[in-house]
Protein backbone atom coordinates (compact mmCIF):
# COMPACT_ATOMS: atom_id res chain seq x y z
CA UNK A 1 0.00 0.00 0.00
CA UNK A 2 3.10 2.18 -0.46
CA UNK A 3 2.89 5.14 1.89
CA UNK A 4 -0.43 4.17 3.34
CA UNK A 5 -0.75 2.62 6.76
CA UNK A 6 -2.32 -0.82 6.63
CA UNK A 7 -5.23 -0.58 9.06
CA UNK A 8 -5.80 -3.96 10.69
CA UNK A 9 -8.16 -2.45 13.22
CA UNK A 10 -11.63 -3.64 14.18
CA UNK A 11 -12.78 -0.58 12.21
CA UNK A 12 -12.19 1.69 10.48
CA UNK A 13 -10.80 -0.52 7.74
CA UNK A 14 -9.18 -0.08 4.31
CA UNK A 15 -11.68 0.65 1.53
CA UNK A 16 -11.71 -0.37 -2.14
CA UNK A 17 -10.56 2.41 -4.45
CA UNK A 18 -13.98 2.80 -6.07
CA UNK A 19 -15.52 3.33 -2.63
CA UNK A 20 -13.09 6.13 -1.90
CA UNK A 21 -13.57 7.67 -5.32
CA UNK A 22 -17.34 7.73 -4.97
CA UNK A 23 -16.95 10.41 -2.29
CA UNK A 24 -15.30 12.92 -4.57
CA UNK A 25 -18.36 13.61 -6.75
CA UNK A 26 -20.10 16.98 -6.97
CA UNK A 27 -22.87 17.49 -4.40
CA UNK A 28 -26.32 16.14 -5.27
CA UNK A 29 -29.72 17.07 -3.91
CA UNK A 30 -30.70 14.64 -1.18
CA UNK A 31 -34.36 15.09 -2.14
CA UNK A 32 -33.82 13.68 -5.60
CA UNK A 33 -34.35 10.47 -7.53
CA UNK A 34 -30.58 10.05 -7.68
CA UNK A 35 -30.20 10.00 -3.90
CA UNK A 36 -33.33 7.87 -3.46
CA UNK A 37 -31.93 5.25 -5.86
CA UNK A 38 -28.69 5.18 -3.89
CA UNK A 39 -30.56 4.64 -0.60
CA UNK A 40 -32.72 1.94 -2.24
CA UNK A 41 -29.65 0.09 -3.54
CA UNK A 42 -28.08 0.08 -0.08
CA UNK A 43 -31.22 -1.33 1.52
CA UNK A 44 -31.74 -3.94 -1.21
CA UNK A 45 -28.20 -5.25 -0.89
CA UNK A 46 -28.08 -5.10 2.91
CA UNK A 47 -31.30 -7.06 3.56
CA UNK A 48 -29.78 -10.50 2.91
CA UNK A 49 -26.58 -9.41 4.65
CA UNK A 50 -28.64 -8.70 7.79
CA UNK A 51 -30.70 -11.85 7.19
CA UNK A 52 -33.88 -9.82 7.26
CA UNK A 53 -36.93 -8.85 5.24
CA UNK A 54 -37.67 -6.04 7.71
CA UNK A 55 -37.24 -2.33 7.08
CA UNK A 56 -33.65 -1.10 7.00
CA UNK A 57 -33.01 2.55 7.78
CA UNK A 58 -29.70 4.28 7.22
CA UNK A 59 -28.70 6.99 9.70
CA UNK A 60 -25.99 9.63 9.45
CA UNK A 61 -23.95 8.85 12.51
CA UNK A 62 -21.63 6.06 13.63
CA UNK A 63 -22.70 2.70 15.10
CA UNK A 64 -23.46 4.34 18.43
CA UNK A 65 -26.07 6.51 16.70
CA UNK A 66 -27.73 3.28 15.59
CA UNK A 67 -27.67 1.99 19.17
CA UNK A 68 -29.12 5.22 20.53
CA UNK A 69 -31.78 5.38 17.80
CA UNK A 70 -32.89 1.84 18.68
CA UNK A 71 -33.06 2.42 22.41
CA UNK A 72 -34.48 5.95 22.13
CA UNK A 73 -37.21 4.86 19.71
CA UNK A 74 -38.27 1.60 21.36
CA UNK A 75 -37.12 1.46 25.00
CA UNK A 76 -38.12 4.80 26.50
CA UNK A 77 -39.13 4.27 30.11
CA UNK A 78 -38.81 0.49 29.77
CA UNK A 79 -36.93 -2.07 31.80
CA UNK A 80 -34.01 -3.24 29.67
CA UNK A 81 -31.98 -6.38 30.33
CA UNK A 82 -28.50 -5.46 29.09
CA UNK A 83 -26.10 -8.36 28.57
CA UNK A 84 -22.53 -7.24 29.14
CA UNK A 85 -19.26 -9.06 28.52
CA UNK A 86 -17.29 -6.18 27.08
CA UNK A 87 -17.14 -2.45 26.48
CA UNK A 88 -19.80 -2.21 23.82
CA UNK A 89 -22.35 -4.26 25.73
CA UNK A 90 -21.71 -1.94 28.65
CA UNK A 91 -22.23 1.10 26.45
CA UNK A 92 -25.51 -0.25 25.11
CA UNK A 93 -26.60 -0.74 28.72
CA UNK A 94 -25.57 2.83 29.55
CA UNK A 95 -27.69 4.15 26.69
CA UNK A 96 -30.59 1.99 27.89
CA UNK A 97 -30.23 3.50 31.34
CA UNK A 98 -30.46 7.03 29.96
CA UNK A 99 -33.76 6.34 28.18
CA UNK A 100 -35.16 3.62 30.42
CA UNK A 101 -34.12 1.47 33.35
CA UNK A 102 -31.20 -0.86 32.61
CA UNK A 103 -30.58 -4.08 34.47
CA UNK A 104 -26.93 -4.78 33.73
CA UNK A 105 -26.26 -8.51 33.52
CA UNK A 106 -22.51 -8.52 33.66
CA UNK A 107 -19.82 -11.12 33.09
CA UNK A 108 -16.09 -10.58 33.03
CA UNK A 109 -15.08 -9.04 29.71
CA UNK A 110 -14.51 -11.84 27.20
CA UNK A 111 -16.25 -14.44 29.37
CA UNK A 112 -19.54 -16.19 28.54
CA UNK A 113 -22.75 -14.24 29.09
CA UNK A 114 -24.80 -14.81 32.19
CA UNK A 115 -27.87 -16.37 30.55
CA UNK A 116 -29.32 -17.42 33.93
CA UNK A 117 -29.21 -13.74 34.91
CA UNK A 118 -31.03 -12.90 31.68
CA UNK A 119 -33.78 -15.43 32.43
CA UNK A 120 -34.21 -13.92 35.87
CA UNK A 121 -34.42 -10.36 34.50
CA UNK A 122 -37.01 -11.49 31.94
CA UNK A 123 -39.03 -13.23 34.64
CA UNK A 124 -38.86 -9.97 36.59
CA UNK A 125 -40.44 -8.02 33.76
CA UNK A 126 -37.66 -6.83 31.42
CA UNK A 127 -39.36 -5.72 28.19
CA UNK A 128 -36.24 -5.25 26.07
CA UNK A 129 -33.02 -7.29 25.78
CA UNK A 130 -29.77 -5.82 24.43
CA UNK A 131 -26.85 -7.88 23.16
CA UNK A 132 -23.63 -7.23 21.30
CA UNK A 133 -23.24 -10.11 18.85
CA UNK A 134 -19.55 -9.63 18.10
CA UNK A 135 -18.10 -8.01 21.25
CA UNK A 136 -15.10 -6.35 19.64
CA UNK A 137 -13.47 -5.19 22.89
CA UNK A 138 -12.89 -8.80 23.94
CA UNK A 139 -13.00 -10.41 20.47
CA UNK A 140 -15.82 -12.78 21.48
CA UNK A 141 -18.78 -13.95 19.40
CA UNK A 142 -21.89 -14.13 21.55
CA UNK A 143 -24.82 -16.55 21.04
CA UNK A 144 -27.40 -14.23 19.46
CA UNK A 145 -29.77 -17.03 18.49
CA UNK A 146 -30.04 -18.37 22.08
CA UNK A 147 -30.55 -14.88 23.47
CA UNK A 148 -33.19 -14.21 20.82
CA UNK A 149 -35.05 -17.37 21.85
CA UNK A 150 -35.10 -16.28 25.49
CA UNK A 151 -36.26 -12.78 24.59
CA UNK A 152 -39.07 -14.17 22.42
CA UNK A 153 -40.14 -16.67 25.08
CA UNK A 154 -40.78 -13.73 27.41
CA UNK A 155 -42.19 -11.50 24.66
CA UNK A 156 -39.37 -8.95 25.05
CA UNK A 157 -37.96 -6.89 22.18
CA UNK A 158 -34.48 -7.99 21.13
CA UNK A 159 -31.96 -5.28 20.18
CA UNK A 160 -28.89 -6.78 18.52
CA UNK A 161 -25.68 -4.82 18.01
CA UNK A 162 -24.26 -6.61 14.98
CA UNK A 163 -22.10 -3.57 14.26
CA UNK A 164 -18.96 -5.62 13.68
CA UNK A 165 -20.44 -8.89 12.40
CA UNK A 166 -22.86 -7.94 9.62
CA UNK A 167 -21.04 -8.26 6.29
CA UNK A 168 -18.27 -10.41 7.78
CA UNK A 169 -20.02 -13.20 9.62
CA UNK A 170 -23.33 -15.04 9.61
CA UNK A 171 -26.14 -12.84 10.87
CA UNK A 172 -29.72 -14.09 10.63
CA UNK A 173 -31.65 -11.22 12.18
CA UNK A 174 -35.09 -12.65 11.38
CA UNK A 175 -34.30 -16.26 12.24
CA UNK A 176 -32.75 -15.17 15.54
CA UNK A 177 -35.70 -12.95 16.42
CA UNK A 178 -33.65 -9.73 16.40
CA UNK A 179 -36.31 -7.02 16.28
CA UNK A 180 -33.63 -4.44 15.77
CA UNK A 181 -30.19 -5.15 14.31
CA UNK A 182 -27.50 -2.55 13.80
CA UNK A 183 -24.40 -2.36 11.61
CA UNK A 184 -21.69 0.32 11.35
CA UNK A 185 -20.40 1.37 7.94
CA UNK A 186 -16.68 1.35 8.81
CA UNK A 187 -16.53 -2.27 9.89
CA UNK A 188 -17.14 -5.37 7.77
CA UNK A 189 -18.95 -3.39 5.07
CA UNK A 190 -15.63 -1.64 4.27
CA UNK A 191 -17.25 1.76 3.78
CA UNK A 192 -16.18 5.05 5.37
CA UNK A 193 -17.04 5.76 8.99
CA UNK A 194 -20.16 7.77 9.71
CA UNK A 195 -23.26 5.72 8.85
CA UNK A 196 -25.30 3.17 10.77
CA UNK A 197 -27.93 0.91 9.23
CA UNK A 198 -30.72 -0.36 11.47
CA UNK A 199 -33.29 -3.05 10.71
CA UNK A 200 -36.65 -2.85 12.49
CA UNK A 201 -39.31 -5.58 12.77
CA UNK A 202 -43.08 -5.04 12.73
CA UNK A 203 -43.10 -6.25 16.33
CA UNK A 204 -40.86 -3.32 17.23
CA UNK A 205 -42.96 -0.79 15.26
CA UNK A 206 -45.98 -2.01 17.22
CA UNK A 207 -44.15 -1.02 20.43
CA UNK A 208 -42.79 2.34 19.36
CA UNK A 209 -42.07 4.64 22.29
CA UNK A 210 -44.31 7.66 22.47
CA UNK A 211 -41.54 10.19 23.13
CA UNK A 212 -38.49 9.65 20.96
CA UNK A 213 -35.25 11.50 20.20
CA UNK A 214 -35.60 14.17 17.55
CA UNK A 215 -32.57 13.43 15.36
CA UNK A 216 -32.52 9.66 15.93
CA UNK A 217 -36.26 9.00 15.68
CA UNK A 218 -36.58 5.75 13.72
CA UNK A 219 -40.23 6.36 12.94
CA UNK A 220 -39.36 9.64 11.22
CA UNK A 221 -36.59 7.80 9.39
CA UNK A 222 -39.12 5.19 8.23
CA UNK A 223 -41.63 7.79 7.08
CA UNK A 224 -38.99 9.44 4.89
CA UNK A 225 -37.62 6.12 3.65
CA UNK A 226 -41.14 4.98 2.69
CA UNK A 227 -41.46 7.94 0.32
CA UNK A 228 -40.77 7.87 -3.41
CA UNK A 229 -37.93 8.69 -3.82
CA UNK A 230 -36.52 7.34 -0.58
CA UNK A 231 -35.37 10.13 1.67
CA UNK A 232 -34.06 10.86 5.15
CA UNK A 233 -35.78 13.28 7.56
CA UNK A 234 -32.82 15.69 7.72
CA UNK A 235 -29.86 16.28 5.43
CA UNK A 236 -27.91 13.02 5.28
CA UNK A 237 -24.15 12.56 4.86
CA UNK A 238 -24.62 12.19 1.09
CA UNK A 239 -21.00 11.32 0.15
CA UNK A 240 -21.05 8.55 2.76
CA UNK A 241 -24.28 7.14 1.33
CA UNK A 242 -22.70 7.10 -2.14
CA UNK A 243 -19.65 5.34 -0.74
CA UNK A 244 -21.75 2.84 1.20
CA UNK A 245 -23.68 1.98 -1.96
CA UNK A 246 -20.39 1.31 -3.73
CA UNK A 247 -19.17 -0.82 -0.79
CA UNK A 248 -22.43 -2.79 -0.91
CA UNK A 249 -21.87 -3.45 -4.62
CA UNK A 250 -18.53 -5.00 -3.70
CA UNK A 251 -20.33 -7.28 -1.23
CA UNK A 252 -22.81 -8.25 -3.92
CA UNK A 253 -20.01 -8.95 -6.41
CA UNK A 254 -18.04 -11.11 -3.97
CA UNK A 255 -21.13 -12.95 -2.75
CA UNK A 256 -22.10 -13.08 0.90
CA UNK A 257 -21.08 -16.70 1.41
CA UNK A 258 -17.66 -16.11 -0.10
CA UNK A 259 -17.19 -12.99 1.97
CA UNK A 260 -18.06 -14.75 5.20
CA UNK A 261 -15.84 -17.71 4.30
CA UNK A 262 -12.96 -15.30 3.67
CA UNK A 263 -13.46 -13.63 7.06
CA UNK A 264 -13.51 -17.05 8.71
CA UNK A 265 -10.32 -18.12 6.97
CA UNK A 266 -8.44 -14.89 7.75
CA UNK A 267 -9.34 -15.01 11.44
CA UNK A 268 -8.48 -18.73 11.58
CA UNK A 269 -5.03 -17.88 10.22
CA UNK A 270 -4.49 -15.24 12.92
CA UNK A 271 -5.67 -17.65 15.63
CA UNK A 272 -3.31 -20.34 14.27
CA UNK A 273 -0.42 -17.87 14.43
CA UNK A 274 -1.26 -16.97 18.02
CA UNK A 275 -1.52 -20.59 19.02
CA UNK A 276 1.91 -21.35 17.48
CA UNK A 277 3.34 -18.33 19.31
CA UNK A 278 1.94 -19.72 22.56
CA UNK A 279 -0.29 -16.70 23.25
CA UNK A 280 -3.68 -17.00 24.96
CA UNK A 281 -6.83 -15.86 23.22
CA UNK A 282 -8.82 -13.20 25.07
CA UNK A 283 -12.25 -14.85 24.77
CA UNK A 284 -13.13 -17.69 27.12
CA UNK A 285 -15.09 -19.95 24.85
CA UNK A 286 -17.65 -22.66 25.53
CA UNK A 287 -20.31 -24.48 23.52
CA UNK A 288 -22.19 -21.22 22.90
CA UNK A 289 -19.45 -18.58 22.87
CA UNK A 290 -16.80 -18.55 20.14
CA UNK A 291 -13.80 -16.44 19.21
CA UNK A 292 -14.81 -13.64 16.87
CA UNK A 293 -14.33 -14.24 13.16
CA UNK A 294 -13.72 -10.57 12.42
CA UNK A 295 -11.25 -9.57 15.15
CA UNK A 296 -8.80 -11.69 17.13
CA UNK A 297 -7.56 -10.74 20.57
CA UNK A 298 -4.51 -12.12 22.40
CA UNK A 299 -3.18 -11.45 25.87
CA UNK A 300 0.36 -10.11 26.03
CA UNK A 301 2.70 -12.46 27.85
CA UNK A 302 4.12 -11.06 31.11
CA UNK A 303 6.95 -8.63 30.53
CA UNK A 304 5.86 -7.55 27.06
CA UNK A 305 4.79 -3.97 26.69
CA UNK A 306 1.98 -2.95 24.34
CA UNK A 307 4.04 -0.08 22.91
CA UNK A 308 6.90 -2.44 22.01
CA UNK A 309 4.65 -4.56 19.85
CA UNK A 310 2.08 -2.19 18.42
CA UNK A 311 4.63 0.63 18.28
CA UNK A 312 7.10 -1.46 16.27
CA UNK A 313 4.35 -2.65 13.89
CA UNK A 314 3.17 0.91 13.41
CA UNK A 315 6.70 1.89 12.40
CA UNK A 316 6.48 -0.87 9.77
CA UNK A 317 3.22 0.70 8.54
CA UNK A 318 0.77 -1.72 10.13
CA UNK A 319 -1.69 -0.55 12.73
CA UNK A 320 -3.91 -2.72 14.89
CA UNK A 321 -5.72 -2.19 18.16
CA UNK A 322 -4.72 -2.50 21.79
CA UNK A 323 -7.08 -3.09 24.69
CA UNK A 324 -9.77 -0.64 25.78
CA UNK A 325 -10.43 0.54 29.32
CA UNK A 326 -9.72 -2.32 31.75
CA UNK A 327 -8.03 -4.30 28.94
CA UNK A 328 -5.60 -1.47 28.11
CA UNK A 329 -1.99 -2.67 27.92
CA UNK A 330 -3.06 -6.27 28.49
CA UNK A 331 -4.21 -7.35 25.05
CA UNK A 332 -3.82 -6.64 21.35
CA UNK A 333 -6.51 -7.10 18.71
CA UNK A 334 -6.03 -7.77 15.02
CA UNK A 335 -9.02 -7.03 12.83
CA UNK A 336 -9.76 -8.77 9.54
CA UNK A 337 -12.91 -6.88 8.60
CA UNK A 338 -14.05 -5.84 5.16
CA UNK A 339 -11.62 -6.48 2.32
CA UNK A 340 -8.69 -7.80 4.38
CA UNK A 341 -7.24 -10.81 2.58
CA UNK A 342 -4.20 -13.11 2.55
CA UNK A 343 -1.45 -10.54 1.85
CA UNK A 344 -2.58 -8.27 4.69
CA UNK A 345 -2.81 -11.17 7.15
CA UNK A 346 0.64 -12.48 6.19
CA UNK A 347 2.19 -9.04 6.52
CA UNK A 348 0.57 -8.46 9.90
CA UNK A 349 1.48 -11.85 11.35
CA UNK A 350 5.08 -11.39 10.14
CA UNK A 351 5.23 -7.89 11.63
CA UNK A 352 3.92 -9.09 15.00
CA UNK A 353 6.41 -11.94 15.05
CA UNK A 354 9.26 -9.55 14.22
CA UNK A 355 8.14 -7.11 16.91
CA UNK A 356 8.23 -9.79 19.60
CA UNK A 357 11.71 -10.76 18.40
CA UNK A 358 12.87 -7.13 18.49
CA UNK A 359 11.41 -6.79 21.99
CA UNK A 360 13.64 -9.68 23.05
CA UNK A 361 10.72 -12.03 23.79
CA UNK A 362 11.05 -15.62 22.63
CA UNK A 363 7.73 -16.85 21.26
CA UNK A 364 7.07 -20.59 21.48
CA UNK A 365 6.88 -21.26 17.76
CA UNK A 366 6.54 -19.92 14.25
CA UNK A 367 3.19 -18.19 13.83
CA UNK A 368 3.89 -17.21 10.25
CA UNK A 369 4.21 -20.83 9.13
CA UNK A 370 1.03 -21.68 11.02
CA UNK A 371 -0.82 -18.86 9.28
CA UNK A 372 0.52 -19.94 5.89
CA UNK A 373 -0.81 -23.46 6.54
CA UNK A 374 -4.32 -22.15 7.16
CA UNK A 375 -4.23 -19.71 4.27
CA UNK A 376 -2.99 -22.34 1.82
CA UNK A 377 -5.74 -24.83 2.64
C1 LIG B 1 -19.42 -4.04 18.81
C2 LIG B 1 -19.40 -2.55 18.67
N1 LIG B 1 -20.51 -1.86 18.99
C3 LIG B 1 -20.53 -0.52 18.90
C4 LIG B 1 -19.44 0.19 18.47
C5 LIG B 1 -19.51 1.66 18.40
O1 LIG B 1 -19.52 2.03 17.07
P1 LIG B 1 -19.06 3.50 16.61
O2 LIG B 1 -17.68 3.72 17.10
O3 LIG B 1 -19.17 3.37 15.11
O4 LIG B 1 -20.04 4.45 17.16
C6 LIG B 1 -18.27 -0.48 18.13
C7 LIG B 1 -17.08 0.27 17.71
O5 LIG B 1 -15.98 -0.23 17.62
C8 LIG B 1 -18.25 -1.89 18.24
O6 LIG B 1 -17.15 -2.58 17.94
TrEMBL record:
Q: Transmembrane residues, as ranges?
A: none
* Taxonomic superkingdom: Archaea
Q: What InterPro entries does UniProt report for this protein, alphabetically?
A: Aminotrans_V_dom (IPR000192), PyrdxlP-dep_Trfase (IPR015424), PyrdxlP-dep_Trfase_major (IPR015421), PyrdxlP-dep_Trfase_small (IPR015422), SP_NH2Trfase/AEP_transaminase (IPR024169)
Give a GO molecular function annotation for the protein: L-serine-pyruvate transaminase activity
Might you give the EC number(s) for this enzyme? Answer: 2.6.1.51
| Transferase listed as a keyword | yes
Cofactor requirements of the protein: pyridoxal 5'-phosphate
Pfam families for the chain: Aminotran_5
Q: Does the keyword Nuclease apply?
A: no
Keywords in alphabetical order: Aminotransferase, Pyridoxal phosphate, Transferase
Q: Which is a GO BP term held by this UniProt record?
A: glycine biosynthetic process, by transamination of glyoxylate
Q: Which residue numbers delimit the Aminotransferase class V domain?
A: 24-324
**Family of the protein in this entry:** Belongs to the class-V pyridoxal-phosphate-dependent aminotransferase family.
- This chain's protein is named Serine-pyruvate aminotransferase
- This chain's source organism reads Methanorbis rubei
